[in-house]
Amino acid sequence: MFPYYGWAGKDFVFASELKAIRAHPRFQGEIDRRALHLFAARTYIPAPLSIYKGLFKLEPGCVLTITPEAAGTPLDAPPREGDTARGLSIRRYWSYRDVVREGLANTIDDEADALVELEKALAKAISDQSIADVPVGAFLSGGIDSSTIVALYQKYSNVPVRTFTIGFEEAGFNEAEDAKAVAKHLGTVHSERTVTVAETRDVIPLLPAMYDEPFADSSQVPTFLVSRFARETVTVALTGDGGDELFAGYNRHLAAPRAWRQLRKLPKPLRSAIGSPLSRLPTQFWHGAASLLPGSRQPHFGGKIQKGLRIAGSVSTFDELYASFLDEWSFEESPVRGGDGDDAAWDLDIADQAPDTLRMMYCDAVSYLPDDILCKVDRASMAVSLETRVPFLDHRVAELAARIPLSMKVGGGTGKHILRKLLRQEVPRELIERPKAGFGIPVGEWMKGPLRPWVEDLLDPARMAGEGWFDAGIIQRRWHDHLTGRRDSTPALWALLMFQAWLRAQNEMLREAA
Fold first, then answer.
1. In the chain, is it the N or the C terminus that has fewer CB atoms within a 10 Å radius of its CB?
2. Using one digit for the tens of pLDDT, what is the confidence trace for 148-181?
3. Strand, helix or coil at 336?
4. Structure confidence by residue, pLDDT tens digits, 279-307
5. Do 446 and 306 meet the contact criterion of CB atoms below 8 Å apart?
6. What backbone torsions phi and psi does residue 439 show, to the nearest 5 degrees?
7. For residue 3, is the peptide bond before it cis, meaning its omega torsion is within 30 degrees of 0?
8. What are the C-alpha distances in Å from 409 to residues 1, 247, 402?
9. Degrees (nearest 5) of the Cα angle 457, 462, 463?
10. Contact of 422 with 118, CB cutoff 8 Å
11. Which helix (H) or strand (E) holds 181?
């Protein structure tokens, strides 16, 4: 994951985990309100920021150089590429923007050729990443991405591949049967474990120490559980992460451009007049409506429809639509007192006239993927000493994927079109074609039930007022709407809870050290 770097007094410090830097006797540990603002909006802290002022993350594909001339004064911002004024400089040695632009200029026009090249590149990445002097396996959810990795891993392996899945007791969140069917067809040595609600909830108190700074993708819990399960047998596991970003796998990659094509035809006042009252219908209504739509297996799908209706009347451009949908407080007052993250714009700039879907994929690949997805998997797996490797993110695979035209990635109303074709050469269609489900837990419902005392302790208005980070009134209104079913605010509330739990853990460590 990202290395952290900055100054502690006159000493330059860097480490892969914040806890190592916190151990320095001159570490200040002042929370950065701008980072907190962005965390509340996005549910993760985007690089190069960290939760602490003056400490930054070194972004992927970059080298940081420090010279003897470096002054030990705190950094108020990371050094710009090529700037050596303060004795610190950053050089980017691999740019995904350049890769995408070069891919657009050198596309593979024949789909049959693209399929051959894609299998060859993925097979090579899997072969390279499965080399180890310790036992190796793979996560298998039964979805397109992990199934593709496992299918090619098994195809070119001389021995049965070890695969791992966890199942849940809750209906709608259990993909174990899907994974078992894929594993049986491929002939892997498959291991499956069903975890109880109690086992799942027992992970939550471990999260602040595991993630080192606030992090709030609730699939961090099942990711830890499958990592812990796999670690009983293997030391390295291949994952299917990165497939969505390279091959247009998120629902928004198709839905957002389609929605904007219709929205832009209507004046904003009319959009607002239609969307605003509909968005005030209870979340449960939209859950019911969503169940009739394709792709509705995703958690919070009804809430996403509700949110889309709410922001439809406020956006003026496609870029605003994209940014607003990924902001848990879009067009609302932030719950964070002070601080401002508005200038941390989403990076959608790749090429003139690039399709909106491609622009979203690029932005997801350079922000959401490293800051959320890879951080989630890395921290959860390393907490149990499991090394995860990501074949889709081999630079040769990413460079080839950039050359595959969008028309081969999106087709028939779905994304990952060419990936599905590749997988169907190894696995029957009926085992893999189903709506995207995600890897979640029903944490939003748990907040209303067994987790409610924990939630209300962390979000106690008097406590928040004393700490000074959040506006208790704004949060209490959002919590009330969630409790009553008026609005599903699971991601927004989970972010607040993860910060509060992290802050409590930090304060306890400081008291113990005093």
1. C
2. 999 999 999 999 999 999 988 776 667 888 999 9
3. strand
4. 777 676 666 665 655 555 555 666 777 78
5. no
6. -125, 75
7. no
8. 28, 6, 11
9. 55
10. yes
11. helix 176-186
**Euclidean distance between CA atoms 194 and 200, whole angstroms:** 10
Sheet strand arrangement including 11-15:
11-15, 4-8, 55-57
Virtual CA dihedral for 472, 473, 475, 481, nearest 10 degrees? 150
The H helix count followed by the E strand count for the chain is 26, 10
How far is residue 150's CA from residue 179's CA, in Å, rounded to a whole number? 11
Residue 43 three-state SS: coil
- Exposure pattern of 168-194 as b/e (b: 16+ CB <10 Å)? beeeebbbbebbbbbbebbebebbbbe
In sign, the C-alpha dihedral spanning 140, 142, 143, 148 is positive
User: What's the angle, vertex CA 506, arms to CA 48 and CA 509, rounded to 5?
Assistant: 135
Q: Rounded CA gap, 396 and 290, in Å?
A: 38
Among residues 408, 421, 430, the alpha carbon closest in space to that of 357 is found at 408
Residue 196 to residue 435: CA distance in whole angstroms: 25
* Phi and psi angles of residue 469, each rounded to the nearest 5 degrees, phi first: -95, -35
Positive or negative, the Cα torsion across 470, 473, 474, 480?
positive
Q: What is the pLDDT of residue 379?
A: 97
At 352-386, the pLDDT tens digits run: 789 999 999 999 999 999 999 999 999 999 999 99
pLDDT tens by residue, 116-137 = 999 999 999 999 999 999 999 9
Asked whether residue 40 carries a pLDDT value surpassing 60, the answer given is: yes
Distances (CA, A) of 346 to 309, 325, 326: 21, 12, 10
